[in-house]
Design brief:
Oligomer: single chain
Radius of gyration: 15 Å
Strand content: 15-25%
Number of strands: 5
CATH class of one domain: Alpha Beta
Order of helices and strands: EHEHEHEHEHH
Structural class: alpha/beta
Length: 166
């Protein structure tokens, strides 16, 4: 299976970044994980992935970053047709209510995870969001059954979703 769908993790604290990536490492066989510590670096990596004809299926993004904050990046991604369908998760301990509401309303935030998080919760959120992304965007969702929600993918196929739907 070609690895066309990426996970992007944006976090400026190296220990936290390492922890997130370690917690979701089981997905990397199917979904390459790219990391950035600023919104600007994330933009460059996202552009490179898109220019290679690949997709960003999921972004896990901290709120407080050097330069532009995470909510700004997520809103920008939502406004870009190339990344509007990317599943967006804000992971933070510092976003205020106003910024969180903005992320929900303007970036179609799919999840908010407070620091510190539980590994099992993070893994389940990643699995659920990537399953939804793959069902709607992958050429062959069947190939992802081993790592994602196999029952949901099988149900999609049973209801008439093609194995090579896109």
């Amino acid at each position: 299976m070609e690895k066309n769908i990426y996970i992007m993790v944006v976090e400026d604290e190296p220990e936290v970044l390492d922890s997130i990536v370690r917690d979701i490492a089981s997905f990397e066989e199917f979904f390459p994980i790219e990391m950035a510590d600023t919104a600007e670096e994330a933009r460059e990596i996202i552009r490179s992935i898109l220019d290679d004809g690949k997709e960003i299926g999921l972004i896990l993004c901290d709120h407080v970053l050097p330069g532009d904050n995470g909510v700004e990046l997520l809103v920008e991604m939502q406004k870009n047709p190339e990344t509007a369908e990317t599943k967006k998760v804000l992971i933070t301990g510092q976003a205020g209510l106003q910024e969180t509401v903005r992320a929900v309303n303007e970036a179609e935030l799919k999840h908010y995870i407070a620091k510190p998080w539980e590994k099992n919760e993070l893994v389940q959120i990643v699995r659920d969001l990537l399953t939804n992304y793959v069902i709607n965007h992958a050429d062959s969702p069947l190939g992802y059954m081993a790592i994602l929600d196999g029952e949901k993918i099988a149900d999609f196929i049973r209801r008439g979703g093609s194995i090579t739907d896109h």
